[in-house]
Amino acid sequence: MIHRRPHRPDRLRHAVQAALLGLGLSAAALPVLVQAAPVSQNQQRDWNIAAGPLASVLDQLARQGGLSLSFDANILQGKTTRGVQGRYDSAQALSIVLQGSDVQVQQESPSSFLLIPAIDAGGALELGATSISSDRLGETTEHSGSYTTGAVTIGKTAQSIRRTPQSVTVVTRQRIDDQNITNLTNLLEQTPGVVVNMTDSERVQYYSRGYAIDAIQYDGATVVQGSGGGSFIQSDSAIIDRAEILRGATGMLRGAGNPSGTVNLVRKRPTAEFQGEGSVTLGSWDAQRYVADVSGPLTETGNVRGRMIAVHDDKDHFQNSRMERKEVLYGVLAFDLSDSTTLTTGLEWTKLDATGAWGNLPADFDGKPLPFGRSTYLGSDWNRWDRSNLQTFAELEHRFDNDWKLKLMAQRTHFELDDHGFKQTFFSRPTGTSNPYLMNYQVTEGDGGESIQNNLSATLNGPFELLGRTHELMLGVERIRNDSYASATNNVASGQFDLRDWDPKTSLPEPDITIFAHPVRTRTTQQAAYATWRISLAEPLTAIIGARNNWYDYEQENNVKSNGKFAVDNKIVPYAALIYDINDNFSTYASYTEIFNPQTATGVSGAVLEPTTGEAYETGIKGEFYEGRLNTSLAFFRIYQVGNALDDISGPNPCLPNYTSGYCKVAAGKNRSQGFELEISGEVLPGWNVGGGYTYNTTEYLKDTSNSTGNPIRTTDPKRMLRLFTSYRLPGELEAWTIGGGVQAQSDIYNRNGTAEASQAGYAVYNGMVNYRFNQQYSLQLNANNIFDKKYYRQVAPTPTGYYWGDPRNVSVTLRGSF
Hints:
Layout: E1 2-4, H1 12-27, E2 31-34, E3 45-49, E4 52-53, H2 54-65, E5 68-72, E6 80-81, E7 84-88, H3 90-98, E8 103-109, E9 112-117, E10 130-132, E11 168-172, H4 173-178, H5 184-189, E12 194-198, E13 204-208, E14 211-213, E15 216-218, E16 221-223, E17 240-247, H6 251-254, E18 261-267, E19 275-283, E20 287-297, E21 304-316, E22 323-338, E23 341-354, E24 384-399, E25 405-428, E26 438-446, E27 449-466, E28 469-486, E29 489-498, E30 520-538, E31 541-558, E32 561-581, E33 586-597, E34 612-625, E35 630-647, E36 665-685, E37 688-703, E38 720-729, E39 737-746, E40 749-753, E41 756-760, E42 763-773, E43 778-785, E44 793-795, E45 804-805, E46 810-818
Parallel strand pairs: 5-9, 15-18
Antiparallel strand pairs: 1-10, 2-5, 3-7, 4-6, 8-9, 11-17, 12-13, 13-14, 15-16, 17-18, 19-20, 19-46, 20-21, 21-22, 22-23, 23-24, 24-25, 25-26, 25-27, 26-29, 27-28, 28-30, 30-31, 31-32, 32-33, 33-34, 34-35, 35-36, 36-37, 37-38, 38-39, 39-42, 40-41, 42-43, 43-46, 44-45
Helix pairs in contact: 2-3
């Protein structure tokens, strides 16, 4: 928007000085004039100009927006900008690029602007001068104060939420801080349409629309979290600017997997200006958390910037004798090799020592929970699950004069269990017992486990003219290799125990284990080439078409010999979408996406079955208000997964040599997931942020075994879910206070095994927050989760280890400071 300041006679002298200074800078001292064909300045368009040197970004802005910008190169020397991403008119885009640069704007015509240094004596440009400002959000959410973002990068290029034709949720930095979210599981528990499933205390699986989310992305680079024998550590929120969660099939983004969705964690990057932040959090169960975050330029010109984040997180658990201690170090450097080329390198190291719980509380014979309280821990206090993760990455970005951009990225991820870092107690029910509390116990120890994942990728994208309209093209290649081995274990201690007499400290002394089995080694390699064309068919209508060609290789070794090997070649995954702009605020869309998932089952011929295919159909309407500060969406979806392995009853039984008992398999299964989602994120009114959504999702096996056909894919996923959090900064004299609250509600779930059934009725958990800001540097925040101390099971199963209590009421107090 454009603000004209009123004429003030007593400021006339300063205004004349500013005008003369502007004329002098535009006519002398090596003036720079950047021109392009003029366009209407009220016309909005999609911008995607990355952060970088201010002069280079202004050059791209002028070329893309048809602006004439006059300025002295000296006033831009050493200055950087965050760039601009999203949908704006040219004046708004210019305002965003210049934020924080100490450069002011004088508009000379609708498409011509003069850039001059800011003058400290207030009102320097008040006579006939124009100052342009905008409330548009950028791509980075840090310091935005918002629950939404101006652009997401989960699709390899920056696009606004409205211009992304699938359901996408962004959990911003502000919301992470307001809810005191500390790790990935906490974050996804707040995300609409996502279910968190506990394999045990340390291995967590995320589900969306009935299917497992089997990979995580870091700045767009895919990482498989389920490999390496349970060595993955949930990412700490301190290093994250935002999390982008796209639901549905995402084969264009990451190759093989389920039609569930993708989580992209966007890490914090160095800032152009110096900043320092720190926080101390104390909470329930002796929780202590300390965070330090320092960022800024490392040279006088600002062409080298750095950031360092350190975290110490130490806490006990609501279950007796359990603890967790985590250390995190994150460092990143950005080098401007030229005005158009930036190199970014960094590393993230996490060390986690935890007691862990390999399973949880038991069910009775009928599947109902045995009466153990929330503090009960059926493990030993010497149990351990200790591991470390290390990620190193490098990214080279070059911006061409024609607005094209080349990005090269390399990332190496190393998940590793400590040497003998896994040692757990586990219970199972003995056959024939009539005592539901009598259990067999065993102790399992691992002498290590790891996953080394290498990711290389290159993308090239930019606009081009065809038939009088501007279109966008993205080309990319990617290679991912994952070498892993599962922890080699041995079960040594065994016996029986009545769980009513179990004491984690005294019931079972720690046994020594000296003999270990050979590890299971696995290597998977994915390679792909892909292209996406965003076609401007007409002013309100955009089509997106794309395809990804995949190569997938799998090999497993056990006991020092090959145990399985297969490959999938030239598997093409298509993508298509339409976006229609109804008006300035609403767009409707329809999309079709696919993904494939390799199988290890074999048919009668001995050949490995073709991969399953996930097909996702989605249509909806998205709204964008207040210059993008509020986003809404309504989506309807239907997903089919076809080709699942079923018994081939027309073949022999046994089906030798691969099946010594039972039939060979045939790729004939089919299942379906469908429903709708309603979501809102951003600022409803000044100071009032809202983030949340409602999901209705049903799933069904359409063709499977006789016991499964007609039943839900996962009965432990609720049909209805509500995830909501809101905060409000009080007005007037109470503006130092911010209050917030939210709810996590869901319908009933169950888990059946024969005649035994475990269940949990629908429930709602309420959370709250109060923040008091002493001044611009310091604030104190109180968070309370499960305020009414609701007792519920977050997960149920009719097994000896299948019941998991939800967290009881807990509180935390955080002191934050900045400098």
